[in-house]
Amino acid sequence: MSDNNFCYYFAYGSNVLERRFRLQILGGSDEFNGISLPEQPSFSDTTLYYQDEEPLKHRFNGWKIFFARKSPIWENKGMAFVEKSANDMDYILGRLYKVTEQQLNELQIKVGNSIAIYGVKEKLPLRFNGLDIFTLTCKNRINANCPCSPAQSFKQTILDGLVETGWTVNEIGSYKRYLV
Asked: Coil, helix or strand for 66?
């Protein structure tokens, strides 16, 4: 496979926790902070291309996280999305995973049970190791049935993923104000 088929996926929601992201690729079921996730199908390519890399944390300035829609998995509470912000002081924290373009396309359909929910594959303004970085979000906030607070179990999964990725206690403490 040529490098042109690889990219990085920037995870900012529950997929920032590697165990959750691994479940997306490999399929199966699991429990996260008291929430049982139903059996999931695997991707057509189940190779974990990121597994030989240390967790890759990244911060994007001028972006913000918001919660909208209602997820049946997360107690019918808000799902995480990101959008560009008019305030350059806003930011999102997350993790980079090396994936194939095919895996990113399958993830886009899988995370929202349809492409309509995470319908935008946003190319972020940076490359890493010569590869583009993409994230998944909704088309616009107006169509996302805003706002809808996230479940505590969902927030905790995000926080667990940030810790696992190597964000410091102070960095995570400052970021918690965005997770409402």
From this structure: strand
